[in-house]
Amino acid sequence: MIRETHVNAFTLALFVAIPLWAVMADEPFTITLMTRAAVFAIAAIGLNVALGLGGLVSLGHAVFFGLGGYAMGILAHHAQTYTALAEWPLLIEGTKSMPVIWLTAIAVSSLAALAIGILSLRTAGVYFIMITLAFGQMFFFFAISWSEYGGEDGLSIYVRNGFPGLNTLDPIQFYGLCLALLCLVLVFVWRLAKSPFGLALNAARQAPVRVETVGLDPARLRLVAFVLSGAIAGLAGALFADLNRFVSPVMFSWQTSGEIMIFVILGGVGRLFGPVVGALVFVALEHWLGELSEFWHIYLGLLLLLIVLFGRGGLIGMVSGREAVHD
Amino acid sequence: MTEQSVPLTPARQTPVLETRGICKSFGALRASREISLDLRPGEIHAIIGPNGAGKSTLIAQICGTLKPDAGSVHLLGRDVTHQATRMRARAGLGRTFQISSLAMDDTVLQNAVLGALGASGRPWRFWKDALHDRTLTETAEEALLRVGLEDLARQRTAELSHGQRRQLEVAVALTLRPKALVMDEPMAGMGPEGSRLLTGFLDQLRQEAPILLVEHDMDAVFSLADRISVLVYGEVIATGSVEEIRANAAVREAYLGDEA
Fold first, then answer.
1. What is the Rg, in whole angstroms, of the alpha carbon atoms belonging to chain A?
2. pLDDT tier for residue B133 given thresholds of 50, 70 and 90
3. Which residues of B touch A196 (CB under 8 A)?
4. Which residue ranges run through the membrane (chain A) (predicted)?
5. Residue B41, class by beta-carbon neighbours within 10 Å (0-12 exposed, 13-18 middle, 19+ buried)?
6. CATH 3.40.50.300 fits B1-92+178-260, yes or no
7. pLDDT value at position B256?
8. pLDDT tens sequence across A87-102
9. A 165-204 near B (Cβ less than 8 A)
10. What's this model's pTM, rounded to 2 decimal places?
């Protein structure tokens, strides 16, 4: 058994070493793949807050991922067409500034998570899964019918948005930005899990009645977890859209929700680096197996089956065993 | 020592916890029939009764997980009938469960810190390590020390023995600095030695927080209780001192049999 902290350090080292090698070997496509993995990892870390810490099996996280994407798409679309987003009561213009886009994505997806959370957290178990799935479908079909922003065809953004002091069109610079955000999110969630809020949320997952008998409200803890989770997924959505310079309703699809969940399960539910390992392995399989066969999802399915059946702690669990008790 | 003979000061007369005529039915089953009982400062009031007598239903209504069809529940003189469980906990009602209800994957200390966190009323902190928060850990460690679990603080709760989990239940309740305790079969499944230790501990504890004790272990009940209420078919058929209950013909017939 390898200690979990060593697995985590190794994973992080891969996220640094592979792109550095790609720069030197002049393999920009590998950098794009790593950017994809980093962005997926952020989305999955978001889901892991709800799923791993809160025990909330949400099959609707594509909503937040998609909202982040459309926040970027709509703001950048108005900026590149020199049209105002709204003229009354306030003049709101589009923007090509990443920090503004990120904050907008986080704000919009938090609000959506708050509204969806208030409605769906009244239920539990399979009903919660179905309600979150239903919300995902609502946003998906709304995006398809929203012809002003491309409808089914989506929105293309011709030039990647900017970040002060960086040339974001350079793959490695954009990657560096995504990796920095991934690290920030990791630090935040690491602290979150150990914080008083995290302790209470963890207990609310395992023994909700206990949490109530010490005077805390499990429902409110879950709602806040769901909002934080949505906010992180929204940030990832904005980055994903910027990576592709394209947003489409596919970001809202239930397949997207499913993929985000696969990242978490693949790596290890509830583990800090589970979503990171899961996203990296997924992108690697997608690339290599995708070259071998168009039907590479069959092999992904087999791998998932094996992990769920035999390694209940995901890949990290298989390598380093049961989670160490945190002190 | 009958009830009438105890010299009651005014303070002793004010019950900490009281039910007034609570009724609860599930369809045709009347699980609680006009139950009125109280818990006074410094006492252990035991509730005994055969299986299916409605003890768990009664406790659920006192703690707020079930709402009575009629009647009211009072805590420290305030009507809490319509308050949620967590509001009653904040008002000073501590509880231990018949089936241990703890975060099994967490450490013993984490479970105790959860109690301290609930008592502090400040769970909305997202950055500082809860186990490095002195105000929380001191309360938690003190409670663990009192029940004798201080050496197991770093152990996963799932690895504890049954009796140790019971002790932890009590410790978590203590972190709330409760004004009244409701304990649902704290002795169940404990060995004789564990039972004896816990009996000694509860004996001391009653001065700090009076205890409403539901218990099947008759030795413990008879050695601890100041008063006993006997519940049969959802109805309190007798309340009184240990001697009175032992001598009560209806009780003997309904419940105690040869045991007394």
1. 20
2. very high
3. 117, 122-125, 128, 130, 133, 136
4. 35-56, 63-80, 100-119, 126-146, 172-193, 223-240, 260-285, 297-319
5. middle
6. yes
7. 62
8. 888 889 999 999 999 9
9. 191-192, 194-200, 202-203
10. 0.93
